[in-house]
Amino acid sequence: MTAAVAVGVLVAGGVYLVLCPGLVRVTFGFVLLGHAVNILLVTSGGLTRRAAPLAGSGDPAQMADPLPQAFVLTAIVITFGITVYLLALAGAEHHGEPTGPEEPSS
Questions:
Q1: According to the UniProt entry, where is the signal peptide (predicted)?
Q2: Which of 61, 80, 84, 106 has the fewest CB atoms below 10 angstroms from its CB?
Q3: What is the per-residue pLDDT for 28?
């Protein structure tokens, strides 16, 4: 129940920030949405209902599924990369550098 509430709060805050103007706010909203997905994936593995997925420590049928944890690790890396990219775009925008293709002048 606690994880569901945490996911709901993070998604609500993330959607609010993504819809706000400003690239830094959008970046923070994206980070919150990423954390919400990570919590959702970890709880889907049944870590609280089953034993830790360590080899040689118990019955394999009673162990939690390690696949969601691998997904979360991948999601953390992807979220970090996109966050750095968005913050670099925000920094370039702040310094007045062009961030996209130039518009044709008429």
A1: none
A2: 106
A3: 92
